[in-house]
């Protein structure tokens, strides 16, 4: 079954009646969901419960990526209402009638994957998926789903509604693509766009809703900024450097260089730093993997700022610049080495064919 973009956790099916219990068990066979049933109906691998259903749902909520609620809509809505946060973190909730004839994505249809789960159930169990999200019924993309499936970040989530609303209502949506990036990155959405421009000035003059796909901190008032994972951060630091000092220094250096940390695809360094807490925590805070390369590998790269002292310490004349290039898979340096006393940073643009 579908795993939501960036989603994780268990699938659960909860039913309240004898007929609903049969439907929940069918769901389990198709999805692998864990089934919770009232004690008097629980058989086989079903987990019995006696607590109020709202209490059960609350208990499962945070560890769930999807809930199949086989019950009346009123019971379902009243049970989940106190738990709702936002569509970026709430699990998928699919409502089903006790006979298992209809599956209605009730919550997190897009990012939570409820729509896809319901559609897969329709194919596997022969029920009818009732999709109500506006972009789907209008056969238009949802910009947050498009970005999430690529593993990209949305910086200003409040602008998502403006883009999706424009698509649903037939208004033109423009896209600014940073000239550093390949058109291939956005070709899958091109048919839904009024234009694609690589000129920031032209994009600024557009009066309609605008998506900006760029790693740079551009001035594009009103645009929805989508941050592609296209940067490799090459980082070095002093042994035992304070993680907070390194993290704040690197983030400050990125900001002063006009680059978004949301575009970090990886943090790279030399093997000698593979257990360095400051670099491990930096990568974790950026939601990026931490990769290290041998001194021999890094020594093969020509870099603009080699250091004899670094060569003597780790066996390569460059850590940050060489690591950025090594991680970029044939890309190019955007930012040469910057130093903050206990850390160094260089940034490379990952080669287009490897993004």
Protein model, in words:
The protein is of the alpha/beta class and 355 residues long. It folds into three domains: 10-132, Rossmann fold (3-Layer(aba) Sandwich), CATH 3.40.50; 143-227, no CATH class; 231-354, Nucleotidyltransferase, domain 5, CATH 3.30.420.180. 32% of the residues lie in helices and 24% in strands. It has helices at 18-31, 53-61, 73-80, 114-125, 134-137, 143-149, 160-168, 200-205, 243-256, 277-286, 295-299, 308-314, 320-327, and strands at residues 10-15, 34-38, 47-49, 64-70, 92-96, 102-107, 128-129, 153-154, 174-177, 195-197, 210-213, 224-227, 231-237, 264-270, 290-293, 332-339, 343-349. A seven-stranded mixed sheet has the order 3-2-1-4-5-6-7, sandwiched between helices. A five-stranded mixed sheet has the order 8-12-11-9-10. It has a five-stranded mixed sheet with strand order 15-14-13-17-16. Helix 2 (53-61) packs across helix 3 (73-80) and helix 9 crosses helix 10 (277-286). The radius of gyration is 25 Å and the shape is globular. The two termini are 26 Å apart. The mean pLDDT is 93.
Short description:
The chain is of the alpha/beta class.
Number of folding domains?
3
Record field, number of beta strands: 17
Overall mean pLDDT stands at 93
Shape: globular
Largest β-sheet summary: 7 strands, mixed
Radius of gyration from CA coordinates? 25 Å
Helix proportion range: 25-40%
Strand percentage: 15-25%
Fill in the CATH topology of the largest domain. Answer: Nucleotidyltransferase, domain 5
- CATH architecture group name of the largest domain: 2-Layer Sandwich
User: CATH superfamily name of the largest domain?
Assistant: CobE/GbiG C-terminal domain
Low-confidence stretches: none
Distance between the termini: 26 Å
**SSE order:** EHEEHEHEEHEHHEHEEHEEEHEHEHHHEE
**Number of H/I helices:** 13
CATH class of the largest domain: Alpha Beta
Structural class label: alpha/beta
